[in-house]
Write a structure and sequence with these properties.
Number of strands: 0
Shape: elongated
Radius of gyration: 16 Å
CATH architecture: Up-down Bundle
CATH topology: Four Helix Bundle (Hemerythrin (Met), subunit A)
Oligomer: single chain
Helix content: over 70%
């Protein structure tokens, strides 16, 4: 329950930032926004991946909660790859702004895989979850490999 409250609070805060509009904010604030959203995704996806790898015990309810957070939050950061946010404290490669259509396609792919992850996690089918963690991770990696500096 506590995690759900935190997730909802963070989601509301992130949506509030998004509502202000990236164009009206300082570039460093927009970068922090997208990094925060992606950090939350990682903090929730990581334990699910650890569960299916046998590194931590599988907990169906925890996996479902975490997958729901991933599914919700992964929709948020993409508008924050706005003009002027390619400089500063960011690992984003300049290619994002040169290949925006491909970048947006990869964003849509990861969102679709995250939606499937949430659905599969709710089902409690461990083998299906394991497969979907792989598919979701692959979608994340496709974007990271091309558009994120190490």
């Amino acid at each position: 329950m506590r995690m759900r409250v935190i997730a909802v609070a963070v989601g509301v805060a992130l949506l509030g930032l998004a509502a202000v509009g990236a164009a009206q904010q300082k570039p460093e604030d927009v970068i922090k926004y997208r990094q925060s959203a992606l950090f939350i995704v990682g903090q929730n996806f990581g334990p699910i991946a650890a569960m299916v790898q046998g590194k931590i015990p599988y907990d169906k309810d925890d996996a479902a909660r975490r997958a729901a957070v991933v599914d919700f939050v992964i929709k948020l950061p993409w508008s924050a790859f706005a003009p002027g946010t390619d400089q500063g404290n960011t690992k984003a490669k300049p290619e994002i702004w040169l290949e925006m259509e491909d970048f947006k396609a990869k964003a849509k792919d990861v969102q679709a895989e995250a939606a499937k992850l949430a659905e599969v996690a709710r089902s409690g089918d461990f083998d299906a979850l394991k497969a979907q963690v792989g598919a979701t991770g692959k979608a994340c990696k496709a974007c990271h490999d091309k558009y994120r500096n190490k």
